[in-house]
TrEMBL record:
Protein name: Uridine phosphorylase
Catalytically driven reaction(s): uridine + phosphate = alpha-D-ribose 1-phosphate + uracil
Domain named Nucleoside phosphorylase: residues: 29-267
Leading EC class: transferase
Gene source species: Bizionia gelidisalsuginis
InterPro entries assigned: Nucleoside_phosphorylase_d, Nucleoside_phosphorylase_sf
EC identifiers of the protein: 2.4.2.3
Length: 289
């Protein structure tokens, strides 16, 4: 059965609804960044760029870096956007837009997030790089999908008990990176970590401006949670959604984090731009190694 027009929405030019790109514009390696302006910061290193488009927060460019075709796309902030980006990227790769049917031969995309993040461990300093081996989602995205098979329930159950998680909040889900991409991008220049993906920047990450928190010890509990040697290392807003949906859709994903804040000691970097730039450079070179 063809997928209905209301479910897979295409624009008059044949591009997918939000991302505004057609299948021929997509490379098999996709770098995601949060900030639309960061797309240029990645593609400035490319040998050539053959395609550019922009719609809402989704800014996309496809080009070639050292003979490797790469698409760079901004997701904006949060896993609600990740739901759109991952599903539309997969549709571009794996659904025939003419027949509206799933292709017989599926394509696996490599999806690499290059983002910023705050460490919650004293020994992961500002201006360092962190590669997320595991991620825990405190958003509810993955619970809308049949996703038990890609979740590490033994870890999330231990975390729920450790934090005395309030059941009025969505229950955490734990997911993992792609092991092959992890090996390719990990090195002695990166900390490997367990990333917490939060449903917001302020309260959900324990920041207090004017509103009191339901649990103001949560960040401490996350920092001293330990599951068989895995401690939670850093906070951001996309990785768990990317890992969960990538696994479900058969894609490979890894998340690279420029640590620009340390929430344990209250420091914020004075070198955000150069730290992110170094991470971009590091990631691109590892991808063509
Ligand atoms: C919050 O300031 C944003 O920064 C981090 C968080 O995940 C969130 O998207 O990542 P990016 O720098 O990639 O946007």
């Amino acid at each position: 059965m063809p997928i209905k027009e209301s479910e897979l929405i295409l624009n008059p030019d044949g591009s997918v609804y939000h991302l505004n790109i057609r299948p021929e514009h997509l490379a098999k390696t996709v770098i995601t960044v949060g900030d639309p302006d960061r797309v240029d910061d990645v593609t400035k290193y490319f040998d050539s760029v053959r395609f550019k488009t922009r719609k809402r927060e989704f800014h996309t460019q496809t080009g070639v870096y050292k003979n490797k075709p790469i698409t760079v796309i901004s997701t904006g902030i949060g896993t609600d956007n990740i739901d759109i980006v991952l599903n539309e990227l997969d549709a571009l790769a794996n659904i025939d837009f003419e027949t509206r049917k799933i292709k017989k031969e599926l394509t696996t995309l490599d999806i690499i997030r290059i983002g910023t993040s705050g460490s919650i461990q004293n020994n992961i300093p500002i201006d360092s790089f962190l590669i997320s081996e595991y991620a825990v989602g405190f958003d509810s995205l993955l619970h809308f999908y049949k996703s038990d098979a890609v979740q590490y329930k033994n870890i999330s159950e231990a975390l729920i008990e450790h934090t005395q998680w309030c059941d009025q909040k969505s229950s955490p889900y734990v997911v993992k990176c792609d092991d092959i991409l992890f090996k390719q991008l990990n090195s002695d220049k990166t900390h490997s970590g367990f990333t917490a993906t939060n449903a917001g920047f302020y309260g959900p990450q324990g920041r207090v401006l004017r509103l009191a928190l339901q649990d103001d010890t949560l960040n401490d509990k996350l920092a001293n949670f330990n599951f068989e040697g895995q401690a939670i290392t850093n906070l951001e807003m996309e990785t768990a959604g990317i890992y969960g949906l990538s696994k479900l859709l058969g894609h490979r994903a890894v998340s690279m984090n420029a640590i620009i804040a340390n929430r344990a000691n209250g420091e914020f970097t004075k070198n955000a731009k150069s730290t992110i730039d170094s991470l971009i450079h590091y990631t691109l070179d590892k991808l063509v190694d």
